[in-house]
Hints:
The protein is mainly α.
Amino acid sequence: MRIGEAAERAGVSARALRYYEEEGLIEPARSSGGHRMYSEAVVEQVRFIRCLQTAGLTGRTILTLLPSVDTGATTPDMVWTLRGERDRMSAQIVSMVEARERLDELIVNAVRCTVTDHPQPAADRPGSR
């Protein structure tokens, strides 16, 4: 399939596909006319790359992991990298949960202050229009 269709199927832009190619993350085939041709396997690989990026992995880290993912072979370095990324993500989750709890406290306090200190403006009251 051509770049536009592959991008749509993978949920990324054509520019992202070209970037992944430049970074060595994917290798599309070329037609006799030199056009990039993407297989379903490449589309799946792009989806996987996006998943890892969303999880916070860098392109460099993903590049080191892809050969092992493609072949199913693991190395101690790969396991170490994956564990490190998992631990980093776990720490981020803890931090985000703490931040969300703090925001919840701020919201409760803000609502309490708004309700008691500042009545709702007439224009915002139901039926005032």
